[in-house]
Design a protein that fits this description.
657 residues; alpha+beta; 8-stranded antiparallel beta sheet; 6-stranded mixed beta sheet; 19 helices; 27% strand
């Protein structure tokens, strides 16, 4: 059985023994820099690996392959600590028995809570130096400090790296916690925030990080965000072993031959540095404006904190830690007033460098000098630049999402309520939801009657109803204003609805919906199916005169000029022609439709009886003149009769009827 991959990060105050404990657990010293050796403190992130077999009582369970990120605990390097804990499954919170709860213990705990880390093991280190009484006192202090947090029931293990006591028990507790943590999901959206870059002679650029969201494979085309450069994965390693692919929850080292180190080529889009994200090309969409939900720990209140943390004010310049990136930004609060400890608020981040964020991503807010951690947050709109922040629509959108950013139904509903029409292509690409979950959510909302699937878009059901009523009303209004027309021109309907930001495919879907519900398309117009063209009131009298004149002499009608001597009569005549009540047989000859059809039937009957006939014979049979008969026969020659010299015969299809 393949092992289950997990990521564990240390946390705790400087000089409380985090790195020593990692070495005791794994045999690897995570401190790799000469300065770290010289100063005896962790400055940069360190990495180690621990394999834990399944417990004897559960032989069918998978082994655990744990990547350990050791973080610095010194106040000057909290920014590096935040970089290491962004994609972890659990934390190893280390508190020295002889030191107790310290400022960075508290700040690290707050960072873990802001990032949503709810699983941890607490190691009480250096118990050999503290003695049993002091160790018991520190243990009680720790339990008091974690009251009211998700870590309240975290197992606590007393350890000493000098004697080795507690190390084996610590492994057991780590296995217990990690076995019960949800495995990192493969949603088909791989992202690897880069936490380390270097160059090997003959190999090229190497980047390392913790993979989330999906698989990366050797030979795959990837993009580096925010630069946007494309390249391929030449080789992959995990814990110093060559692999063909890496899965979510694994530490990975990636050889990227098509890229350069940003420190040597900062303006090159194919440059990479700590803070870059390795992902798929379609996901590399950085933004410099994010709308977010901010929250400040109640532990920052003066009674709970040893540090005086001021309210977070509108317009404050801060540093945003997202993944492994550290970006300057200004905070714009949606509502007036300051954000106090223990409170939450919707805000906009105006970033001074773009970030490729997803809906639901967590981040840390630290002050500009990087002395204090101020707040945490969750991304609500990763593509907020196109929206005005304080519009009612955007406010409702953000408030809806803030209630549960990780609910795909809510994510789609909020989009529909704000945008009304949403393209299906790329729907929620920048989200923690797989394609299957997105499709299932769309289907759920469709079955509940909350959305309509229209061509390549989904449309809010209520809005679709409004569109239908608007279109139907426009068609009816056109019928009332211009009853002589066959219907509302489609160009007019498109123009009316243009301000709804339609895609052509959505308009076509709306037209299809109308034609299934009592409307008919007639050429380039659309009408009510029961609409019958009629003359407008001011032309009805003229129309009646034209009809009467034609019916008074059906086989010898007046000339066009005599029939329509004025503007009203001419307009009425044109309508009667369009409506099929009058049949034009030439520039000057018009027949009432009733007369035309009657004369046509008489000609057909005569030719069936006689086989053939001349113009003169047909004129005499119908009792009309050559002025009428010649244009009439020339008209019928296209569909009813055939000319053979001076005679007319029926077309075969007509003669056989």
């Amino acid at each position: 059985m393949n092992p289950r991959h997990c990521i564990l990060a240390t946390a705790g105050h400087v000089d409380h023994g985090k790195s020593a404990l990692v070495q005791a657990l794994t045999g690897t010293d995570p401190d790799r820099l000469p300065e770290e050796k010289r100063r005896g403190i962790t400055i940069e992130l360190g990495f180690a690996h621990l394999d834990l077999p399944p417990r004897p009582e559960t032989p069918g369970a998978p082994a655990l392959s744990i990547g350990i990120v050791d973080v610095p605990g010194h106040v000057d390097f909290v920014r590096n600590m935040v970089t290491g804990v962004g994609s972890i499954d659990a934390a190893l919170l280390v508190v020295a028995a002889d030191g107790g709860w310290m400022p960075q213990t508290e700040e690290h705990l707050q960072i873990l809570l802001y990032l949503g880390i709810s699983r941890a093991v607490i190691a009480l280190s250096r118990v050999d130096l503290a003695g049993p009484d002091r160790a018991a006192e520190t243990e009680s202090e720790i339990r008091r400090q974690i009251l009211g947090t998700p870590l309240v029931d975290a197992p606590l293990v007393r350890t000493s790296v000098l004697t080795g006591s507690g190390v084996d028990e610590l492994k057991i507790r780590l296995r217990d916690v990690l076995e019960h943590s949800a495995p990192q999901a493969d949603i088909g959206k791989p992202r690897l925030p880069v936490d380390r870059t270097f160059q090997l002679r003959g190999t090229g650029i190497i980047v390392t990080g913790t993979l989330t969201g999906g698989r990366l494979e050797r030979g795959q085309t990837i993009a580096v965000a925010p630069g946007g450069g494309l390249g391929r994965v030449r080789a992959l390693q995990s814990h110093h072993r060559d692999v063909g692919a890496v899965d979510p929850g694994m530490r990975a080292a990636i050889n990227l031959p098509d890229f350069a180190l940003a420190e040597f080529a900062p303006s090159n889009p194919n440059s990479v540095s700590r803070g870059s994200v390795i992902t798929l090309p379609q996901l590399a969409r950085p933004a410099d404006v994010l709308d977010v939900h901010l929250f400040r720990s109640p532990r920052l209140r003066p009674a709970a904190s040893t540090t005086d943390i001021h309210p977070l004010k509108h317009g404050t310049r801060v540093r945003i830690h997202h993944g492994t990136a550290n970006v300057p930004a200004r905070i714009l609060l949606l509502d007036a007033g300051d954000l106090e400890a223990g409170n939450a608020a919707i805000a906009r981040l105006r970033l001074e460098a773009p970030l490729p964020a997803f809906l639901g991503d967590r981040f840390i807010v630290r002050d500009w000098p990087e002395e204090h951690t101020l707040a945490g947050g969750i991304v609500l709109d990763p593509d907020a630049a196109a929206r005005r922040f304080r519009t009612p629509a955007q406010r409702a959108f953000l408030e809806h999402r803030a209630a549960d950013p990780l609910d795909p139904l809510r994510a789609i509903q909020s989009l529909l309520q704000r945008d009304r029409i949403v393209p299906r292509d790329g729907l929620l690409d920048q989200s923690p939801f797989s394609e299957n979950r997105i499709i299932a959510a769309v289907e759920n909302l469709f079955k509940r009657g909350m959305l309509i699937r229209a061509a390549d878009c989904i449309v809010e059901a209520a809005f679709w109803g409004e569109l239908f009523e608007t279109a139907a009303g426009a068609i009816d209004d056109f019928h009332n204003r211009q009853p002589e027309q066959p219907g509302l021109p489609l160009t007019g309907l498109r123009s009316l609805l243009r301000n709804r930001a339609f895609r052509p495919a959505v308009m076509d879907a709306l037209l299809d919906g109308l034609t299934r519900n009592g409307f008919t398309r007639t050429g380039t117009a659309i009408r009510r199916a029961n609409h019958r063209m009629a003359l407008p009131p001011d032309l009805r009298e003229a129309g009646d005169r034209v009809r009467a004149a034609l019916l008074a002499h059906p086989h010898e009608p007046p000339t066009r000029k005599a029939l329509a001597p004025d503007s009203a009569s001419r307009q009425a005549l044109e309508f009667l022609i369009r409506n099929g009540e009058v049949v034009p047989l030439g520039a000057d000859l018009l027949l009432a439709a009733e007369a035309f059809h009657g004369m046509t039937e008489s000609i057909v009957l005569h030719l069936r009886n006689h086989g053939r006939a001349t113009v003169s014979e047909l004129r005499q049979a119908l009792g009309t003149t050559r002025r009428v008969m010649v244009p009439l026969l020339e008209h019928l020659d296209h569909s009813v009769t055939l000319r053979e010299g001076d005679h007319r015969v029926l077309r075969p299809a007509v003669g056989n009827q």
